[in-house]
Specification:
It is a single chain. The chain has eight helices and six strands. With 176 residues, the chain is of the alpha/beta class. The chain has a four-stranded parallel β-sheet, with helices on both faces.
């Protein structure tokens, strides 16, 4: 595409692609935005946060509610919940547990390989990627910024687009 120093933005699984690229070619990206993800970053403390999160397991939800969308979205924005489920239904064959196991195994980028500028976005009620992991990451990358969205889950861009876009615009405006 011949892009000159783009800002890489990765939501959830997209964070793996962005962190792998940013670590392998730091000169190619102007900045990195990780939304509801820590991507492929690994560190013993971060790994321990994920291990504890996985050990707790996921809450039981009604069949019409995605763990990524959660009950609040179904109540507050029923049309967005239906659309979220329709998008997920496009791949009924997908073994989500196998995908998660693969992603966990792909967490191979050492923390030191991640350089700023970095914006991390997390939803207070994210059931898939613990907000504490995202907060930990921001605390260990010099100059990183955190946007913690209250009353939002795993897809802040989807659930609270105005807040997500405002945080992104502020971050982009502050870039050198």
């Amino acid at each position: 595409l011949e892009l000159q120093a783009p800002v890489l933005i990765g939501q959830s699984m997209g964070g793996w692609t962005c962190t792998l690229l940013a670590a392998a070619h730091p000169e190619r990206a102007r900045a990195l935005v990780l939304a509801c993800t820590t991507g492929a970053i690994t560190h013993p403390e971060l790994d321990a946060i994920f291990a504890a999160h996985l050990a707790r397991g996921l809450p039981a939800l009604p069949p019409h509610v995605s763990v990524a969308a959660r009950l609040r979205l179904a109540r507050e924005q029923p049309a967005m919940n239906v659309l979220y489920n329709q998008v997920a239904a496009l791949s009924p064959w997908l073994d989500r547990r196998a995908v998660m196991a693969t992603l966990v195994a792909m967490r191979t980028v050492p923390l030191a390989a991640l350089r700023g500028p970095l914006l991390c976005v997390t939803g207070e009620e994210d059931l898939l990627i613990p907000p504490s992991a995202v907060t930990w990451l921001v605390g260990h990358v010099p100059g990183a910024r955190l946007h913690h969205e209250p009353a939002a889950g795993h897809s802040v861009y989807w659930e609270r687009p105005a807040a997500f876009n405002r945080a992104l615009a502020e971050f982009l405006a502050a870039l050198p």
